[in-house]
Amino acid sequence: MKFFIDTANLADIREAQDMGILDGVTTNPSLMAKEGITGKDNVMRHYKQICDIVEGDVSAEVIGTTFDEMVREGEELAELDDNIVVKIPMTRDGVKALKYFSEKGIRTNCTLIFSAGQALLAAKAGASYVSPFVGRLDDISTDGVELIEQIVTIYRNYGYTTEVLAASIRHPMHVIQCAEIGADVMTGPLSVMLALLNHPLTDIGLAKFLADHKKASSM
Ligand code: E4P
């Protein structure tokens, strides 16, 4: 399973990269705004900085909502770095833009996926990734992991090469459940990756090993 970090925070990206577990980055306009990145030049510079830290795909989302705007923005983003993946919202114009980019060999991530039908459309239009939002579905009492399972099954049935990128991951069990059912990628914050480290028996075991070592050394 590939691990993407879902943030525009450079320190968090560096930390995940230094741990050696990072395969890519996803951002969105809210995450960019949270870091105070505004204005086209700053946004482009920030994406470039992210690409310089990570050896892997970096999803950069278009702001435009019409086909022409998405194409213009997406082409500029794709020129920034070979690792840029153009993130396109699941709308009618978005589907057209996915098809356009796939024919041009520009990789895409179709975002805001909340149903299997949307995921099927994105795959048919040639999206490189689809991003079903697990946590946001859970927030409205709908099983987000079940949607991932449905999409994985549908893609396997027809041999679609679009990768299932489980997004809006909120806790370690989301990661485990998505891994069990074969999601290709998960994207979540650094805190979720760090939470995967923890087990009380590991802490107790390590404390005992060190105490025994200390006792033996003082004999
Ligand atoms: C996907 O790429 C989105 O950036 C993200 O995962 C949304 O997560 P949220 O629901 O925690 O905002």
UniProtKB/TrEMBL annotation:
<dbReference type="GO" id="GO:0006098">
    <property type="term" value="P:pentose-phosphate shunt"/>
</dbReference>
<dbReference type="InterPro" id="IPR033919">
    <property type="entry name" value="TSA/FSA_arc/bac"/>
</dbReference>
<dbReference type="GO" id="GO:0005737">
    <property type="term" value="C:cytoplasm"/>
</dbReference>
<dbReference type="InterPro" id="IPR018225">
    <property type="entry name" value="Transaldolase_AS"/>
</dbReference>
<keyword id="KW-0963">Cytoplasm</keyword>
<dbReference type="GO" id="GO:0016832">
    <property type="term" value="F:aldehyde-lyase activity"/>
</dbReference>
<keyword id="KW-0808">Transferase</keyword>
<feature type="active site" description="Schiff-base intermediate with substrate">
    <location>
        <position position="87"/>
    </location>
</feature>
<dbReference type="GO" id="GO:0042182">
    <property type="term" value="P:ketone catabolic process"/>
</dbReference>
<comment type="similarity">
    <text>Belongs to the transaldolase family. Type 3B subfamily.</text>
</comment>
<dbReference type="Pfam" id="PF00923">
    <property type="entry name" value="TAL_FSA"/>
</dbReference>
<dbReference type="InterPro" id="IPR022999">
    <property type="entry name" value="Transaldolase_3B"/>
</dbReference>
<dbReference type="InterPro" id="IPR001585">
    <property type="entry name" value="TAL/FSA"/>
</dbReference>
<dbReference type="GO" id="GO:0005975">
    <property type="term" value="P:carbohydrate metabolic process"/>
</dbReference>
<keyword id="KW-0570">Pentose shunt</keyword>
<comment type="pathway">
    <text>Carbohydrate degradation; pentose phosphate pathway; D-glyceraldehyde 3-phosphate and beta-D-fructose 6-phosphate from D-ribose 5-phosphate and D-xylulose 5-phosphate (non-oxidative stage): step 2/3.</text>
</comment>
<keyword id="KW-0704">Schiff base</keyword>
<protein>
    <recommendedName>
        <fullName>Probable transaldolase</fullName>
        <ecNumber>2.2.1.2</ecNumber>
    </recommendedName>
</protein>
<dbReference type="InterPro" id="IPR004731">
    <property type="entry name" value="Transaldolase_3B/F6P_aldolase"/>
</dbReference>
<dbReference type="InterPro" id="IPR013785">
    <property type="entry name" value="Aldolase_TIM"/>
</dbReference>
<comment type="function">
    <text>Transaldolase is important for the balance of metabolites in the pentose-phosphate pathway.</text>
</comment>
<dbReference type="GO" id="GO:0004801">
    <property type="term" value="F:transaldolase activity"/>
</dbReference>
